[in-house]
Protein: Selenoprotein P
Organism: Biomphalaria pfeifferi
Amino acid sequence: MTARLGSLIGLGCLLMVLTPQATSQRCSAFTWRSTLGENPLATHSGKVVLVALMKGYCSYCITQASRLDALKNRLASEGYPDIAMVIVNGGESISRNSISNLQQASSIPVIQDNEQHTMYQEIFRRNKDDFIVYDRRVKFLYL
């Protein structure tokens, strides 16, 4: 399914697929610190989860966000109705001030990174325009 998902995304971005079958890299759960508030992915345990790292001021990111609804609908129509998606907005002030651009572009939930970029740098260890796909076996830890 991961190859199919990669071809369906078609957004021209790096697709980070972190599943044992797809790469030699082991899929590891991240640890969500309680100082960040409630873990927004905890409710998606047992599902495939696509995390899109975007920035609200970036027109390319806004276009990507607007296409995620269509992707979710297409995947559902092709037999993958339980794929969860989350957008993570960058933590710098220009991104925080522009979060509404991502929220208006898509019905996919948008979560806000903090000023220290904890989600980007420490939790997901990825950058803007990266997509991370977690398979059903990942347990999202909360500490």
User: Anything to note?
Assistant: DSSP finds five helices and seven strands in the chain. Residues 20 and 84 are 19 Å apart (CA to CA). The longest strand covers residues 48-54. Confidence is low (pLDDT under 50) at residues 6-27.
